[in-house]
Amino acid sequence: MHELQTEIDQLTQAINQHNIRYYVDDAPSIPDAEYDRLMKRLIELEQAHPHLALPDSPSKRVGGIALQKFDQITHLKPMLSLDNAFETDDFVAFNKRIADKVGAVDYVCEPKLDGLAVSITYRNGVLERAATRGDGSVGEDITQNVRTIRAIPLKLRGEGFPELVEVRGEVFMPKAAFEALNQRQMAKGDKVFVNPRNAAAGSLRQLDSKITASRALGFYAYALGVVEGESQTMQLTHYGQLNQLKQWGLPVSLEVKVCDTLENVFTYYQDIMSRRSQLEYEIDGVVIKVNDIEKQQTLGFVAKAPRWAIAYKFPAQEEMTLLEAVDFQVGRTGAVTPVARLKPVFVGGVTVSNATLHNADEIARLGVKVGDTVIIRRAGDVIPQIVAIVPEQRPDDAQDIVFPQYCPVCQSIVERLEGEAVARCSGGLFCEAQCKEAIKHFASRKALNIDGLGDKIVEQLIDKELVKTPADLFSLTASAITMLDRMAMKSATNIVNAIKQAKTTTLARFLYSLGIREVGEATAANLAQHFAEFDKIRTASVEQLLEVSDVGEVVARHISQFFAQPHNIEVIEQLLNAGITWPKIAQADESQLSLKGQTWVLTGTLSQLNRNDAKAQLQALGAKVAGSVSKNTDCLVAGEAAGSKLAKALELGVKVIDEQGLLDLLNASH
Ligand code: IVH
Predict the structure, then answer these.
(1) How confident is the model at residue 612 (pLDDT cuts 50, 70, 90)?
(2) What is the pLDDT of residue 379?
(3) Measured from the CB, is residue 81 less than 6 Å from ligand 1?
(4) Residue 289 annotated among the catalytic residues of the structure
(5) What fold is seen in the domain 84-313?
(6) N or C: the chain end with fewer CB closer than 10 Å?
C-alpha cells in the first residue's frame, strides 16, 4: 500500500510539473505520448484505490457531476474594469494625469486578452475556489469548471506562499481550439460559436463541467488580487507580482513588457498589433499599467476603474450596425447572391457598408431579418462577414428576407436545384447580369485574352447596348467604341485590333471562354485533347464525356446541358461565323501521342508562347505538365531567367530544352 501511495504521489507531482513546464514556461519537458502514458497509469491506480488519490491530482480535470445552478460568490475585493483609450491622444492624456499626480512612471504593457475575467483563490497553496467576474462585486462559482483547465495549477509550485492568494486573469480559447470546436459542433449539427470569446464563455459557464473539460481552454494570470497572511514574498512592482505568479506555477503571457517611455509604449502597441494575426489567441488591444504598486495606490480609482491602468484598444474588428436592406446580385453562372446593405460602420480600420449573406442557408442559419442589428466582423484582410444578429434589438417591423422568384435583372425564373445551396437565374446569356460577366470572362486572359477589353469597358458596351452577346464583339467598329466614356479613336482602334487578333485561338481556350459551369482551364484542355474537334464535344453524350480524364458526373452534366440550350448554340454559331479559328488538333489516338506517359515541367519566361498555351499543347501531345521537378520529370522547358527548377533538373540529370527546342518539337508534331 505504501508503495502504491508513493507511485501515485510521484505521478501526480510529475504530471503537475509537466503542466507547468508546458503552460507557464512554454517549454514542454516530455513528448505528449509520454504525458498521456503517465496520466493513464495514474488514472488506473486511482480507480483501483480512490482513497489514495491526492487533492491536486491532474485526473480531477475531467469534470464532475453537473450542477443545477451556479452558486454566487462575493469577491473579497471588487473586480474592476478598465477605461478605454481608442486613440493616441487618449493615452497621452492618461499619461499626463498620472505624471501630474505621481511624476514619471514605468509602465507594464500586456496584451488585452479577449476572454473572460476570473478570480481564483488558493488557500495554503491549494486551489480552493474560482469565480467569474459577474457584476464586479458578485460572480458565479465556477470552481469545478476551472479545475478542468490544465493551464491552471491545482496546487501552487514551491512553498512559502501566503495563506490566501487570489489570482486574477483571463480564461480564453486559443484560435486553433476555437476552429476545431466549431468544426466538431458543425459535424454534430450543434450551434457554432461566433468568436473565441463566446466559445470560451459558453465553455466556462457550463453547469456540466465535463463539457468544460472537453474544451481546450487557456489561461493567463494578469494580476494578484487579495493576499492574506503575507510573508516575505511582497512585491513592490506589478511586474514583480507577475513574476511571482509565474514562480508559483501560474501562466503569464510571454508578451508582457516593461516600457519606460511613452515612445516605447507606442512601439509595443504597434508591434503587437502587427503580429496580432499570428498570435495563438485573440487580443483586442493592450493593457497598460503603472508598474510601481505604491504609485498605483496613490493614484487610486474612479468609479469602477483604476486610474493607474488603461486598455488601449485596437481598431475594432467586430462592430454592430443596422441591416438596412438586402439586394440580390447575379453572377456569371447566374448565382443569385444576397448582399447586405448596412448602415456604414467603421470596423477593423475600414468603413463597411456591404457584406455578403452568401445564400438562403446562411440567411436561415443567422435567422436574420431586414431591420436587425447585426454583428459585422472583419478579420485581417478578409471580406466583412455578418456573424450574428442581436435578437434583443429586433424592431417590431423587421422584415423577412425573401429570396426572389424571378431574376432581379432579367425577370427569368430563379431556380434552386435539389441539394444545391445556390439559387440561380435561369436566363443564361439572355440575362444582362450574366451576359456582362460572361463577356468579361470571354475576354479574360486565360480565355480569348482580348487586350484592352477590361471589365469597365465591357460593362459600358452592354449598358450602351453596343454588345449583347460575345459574338457582337466581333462586329464592333472603332467609331462605335469611341462612344464610351473617355475613349479616343486610337484606343478604340487598338481594341478592335485586339478583338480581331483574338479570333485565332486554341480549341481549349475557346471552350474555356464559353464559361460552361465547372469547366476550368484544365478541363477545357482535356476535352480539347480528347475529342480534338469542337463538334464532337458539342454533340457528346454524358457517357462519352465521362471518358475524358478529370471529367466526372457533375461536369459532364453541365457540359451536356450547356450544349442542349438553343441559345448557346446560336451564340456559338455566331462566334464561329465571326471567324474564330484554332489550329487543328492531331487526332487524339492516345496510344499514338508522342509524349504519352511523359511528365514535363515549364519554368522561366517564355517569349513566343504563352505559358498556358505551351502547357495545353504539351498536354495535347499526351504529356502531363507538372509544377515541380523530380526524378520522374522527363523534360524541363527552361525559358528566360529560369532559377531553382533549372538547377534541380541539372542536379538530377533531367533533360532540359529551351523555348526554341519546345517550338521545334511542337511544329514537328503538327
Ligand atoms: S487588468 C484593475 N489585464 O479586460 C485591472 N485586464 O475591461 C483589471 N483583460 O475584465 C483588469 N486582458 O477581463 C487586465 N492583461 C489584462 C487583461 C485584462 C484582458 C480584461 C479583463 C477585464 C477587462 C477590463
Answers:
(1) confident
(2) 66
(3) yes
(4) no
(5) D-amino Acid Aminotransferase; Chain A, domain 1 (3.30.470)
(6) N
- Which of 108, 113, 220, 293, when mutated, tests ligand 1's pocket best, judged by the most ligand atoms within 8 Å of its CB? 113
Strands 635-638 and 599-603: parallel
pLDDT one-digit tens code per residue, 161-202: 899 999 999 999 999 999 999 889 888 888 888 789 989 999
Q: CA nearest 334: which of 516, 573, 572?
A: 516
Q: Which residues contact 145 (CB under 8 A, 6 or more apart)?
A: 63, 130, 204, 205, 206, 209, 212
pLDDT of residue 190: 84
User: Which of 60, 112, 289, 369 is the catalytic position?
Assistant: 112
pLDDT bin (cut points 50, 70, 90) of residue 154 is: very high
Domain at 428-501: CATH code:
1.10.150.20
pTM: 0.59
10 Å CB burial of residue 202 (0-12, 13-18, 19+) is middle
Q: Please name the fold of domain 317-393.
A: OB fold (Dihydrolipoamide Acetyltransferase, E2P) (2.40.50)
Atom 13 in ligand 1: residue holding the nearest Cα: 117
**Is the CB of 310 inside a 6 Å radius of any atom of ligand 1?**
no
Please tell me the distance between residue 102's alpha carbon and the centre of ligand 1 in angstroms: 23
- CATH class entry, domain 2-62: mainly alpha
Taking the C-alpha atoms of residue 36 and residue 515, their distance in angstroms, rounded to an integer, is 54
Q: How far is the CA of 219 from the centre of ligand 1 (A)?
A: 13
Q: Please give the distance, rounded to the nearest whole angstrom, from the Cα atom of residue 126 to the centre of ligand 1.
A: 24
